[in-house]
Write a structure and sequence with these properties.
8-stranded mixed sheet, 10 helices, globular, single chain
Length: 375
Amino acid sequence: MSEFKGIPVVNSPARNPAAPQGPPRSGEKYFTPQGFAAIRDGIKASAGSAARVPAGIQPGNPLGAGTVAGAPIGTAAATARKPSWLRAKAPSGAGFQTVKALVKEHRLATVCEEAKCPNIGECWNAGTATIMLMGAVCTRACRFCSVDTGNPHGWLDADEPENAARTVELMKLRYVVLTSVNRDDLPDGGAGHYAACVRAIKQRNPDTAVEALTPDFEGVLVDVSTVVDSGIEVFAQNIETVRRLTHPVRDPRAGYEQTLTVLEHAKRHNPRVLTKSSLMLGLGETDAEIERTLDDLRAAGVDIVTLGQYLRPTVNHLPIERFVTPAEFDKYRERALARGFLECVSGPLVRSSYRAEQALNRNNAGLDNSSLVGQ
């Protein structure tokens, strides 16, 4: 193993299958099949990371047949001391295996896998998935996110629009969420490629509704318009956290006001497109800050908001400050609806694309948070 600027570097298994060290570990730098360097799970390993694990979250062994939601087996977040409502079964089942095979066959990256989503088993068994465009390596390093980070140097898969369209067709999806890594290495942030994927999907699947959960395109509004004009039904950009915690939670290139500006522009540019954003809870925010963020999102014309529990993906990421109870999620949903949102999907395991096709059913996407208590 060699080093680059003090970070251990390993070869990706795809480039060197015989490498004795095996796959890169969390926080290690490795080389992708496309030849550029990336950091596994997005955040460099720190010698003191284990010491920063909050009380009740201790590094340990797998929890038998299941994992704690959002936590890879064997990491600090896999712990029996988390609340019962945050447990998720290990993904399995015929539907899960079928979707996994489709994703692999068509060389698609999914946020379900890359972000270690706790709902991957439920969604994939239901025949739905959120497709992540433009590869699995992000140019940013947000401290809550486990997507690998690096500089792809302009690399794009030219076949991705057609591959995405064919996968949606094979899966017979009536609603698909397209998200992507940030691609600050591209002149337009990848907006043109994003739009090409939407058009390809619509051409093969004219009755499929498309939600675009996009990067902020560095606040370049012409690039936002490119995606909004591509034929989507829903435009989403996540604000992630309250203003005070934006940094250090998000990468320095992201911004609270920048996200609000992007969302406001999308709504003004095409009022028929629904706009959507998401907020993680449990990072140290106060109730007053949550309410102020909801006010700011409504002022920007956002139609739908989702609220979910932040879950630390590895010990190198930000610690959890509190576990929000199911009852509290119900309370925050009521406060959001009182502000005029068309819907607020709110619950411990909610992620921005979870049950996205049900967001306008006005029933918390079918979630019953009261049933989670005592599980």
